[in-house]
Amino acid sequence: MTSLEAVSTYLPPTVPVTDLRESLGLSDQQVRRFTRLYGLNGICQAPGESETDLLLAAAGKLAILAGQEHRVRYLIRAKGLRTTAPYPVSPLLQVREKLGLRHAQPLAVADHGCATGLLAIDVAGTLLAADGDPEALALVVAGDKTFTRFSQWVEDVSIMGEGVVAVLVGSGARDRVLGYEALIIGREDGVIDLDADGAREAKRIYQDAIAEVIAKALDAAGTTVDGLRLVLPHNVNRVSWTVAAKNLGIPRERVFLDNIERTGHCFCADPFINYRSACDLGLLKPGDRYLMTSAGLGQSFAAMVLEH
Q1: Domains of the chain with CATH codes
Q2: Interval 186-196: pLDDT, tens
Q3: Angle subtended at Cα 114 by Cα 141 and Cα 11, rounded to the nearest 5 degrees
Q4: Burial of 47 (0-12, 13-18, 19+ CB in 10 A)
Q5: What is the pTM (predicted TM-score) of this model?
Q6: Which residues is 289 bridged to in the sheet?
Q7: What string of H, E and C letters represents the secondary structure of 50-82?
């Protein structure tokens, strides 16, 4: 069974949203909306660090990896953005070399937007199951560098942070995946950018779609909303999850939103950033079931139920 053997994060320093007013071209009204309504008071940014630097900083905190590099069969890059570095730079290959993962096959998964992190865990579990070696591991690295203005924010929805994670995936008993579901409601032309029509459609379907994919993941795991100790969502904004919790019948206090005000929306790394924080705070006990969930541009949705 797919399991999360270890999760580490790297969160760069937080920059107040008010300091981003000029670079993002935000109006006073937009600043107020992001801070007072959405709860996005600060965004973690690392202007002096490359994507490779960020990913290595997260992976370097995986103490369990030291001396076990030979067991890592796959190095998987979960990309919230299709392009994360200028050609011909490959942060993934640089990470592989720096970590000494000579036995690891590098690959990337994308096109699920900010739901790609959960997809990468499922891909890792599928590859490890087919590999047949119970000692084999996969290392998933997630989170993106906002190196273009396009990648720095989603207009009137969220502001993107540069927090990253490293997740060591195995087939043991730690944080076992009980159910995973993905849902894509794409356009026929394949466009994922939020133009005016796309934004209206995304807003119209969002709550129903996130509820649908969560219900399917719960069903696959053989549990219900009442069986969840905690929900670890993507940090898009406070309002969307306040509404979703009410629609799903989940008590507000079970949805972990503490990081929104200090990280911003860190692409597909968010659920794992929230996992690390929840564990550090002692919010998950052995046997607790919890839900990770995300949504991405292109109307992609994902949910994963795990047991701590």
Answers
A1: 3-170 (3.40.47.10), 176-307 (3.40.47.10)
A2: 666 655 666 66
A3: 50
A4: exposed
A5: 0.94
A6: 228, 307
A7: CHHHHHHHHHCCCHHHCCCHHHEEEEEEECCCC
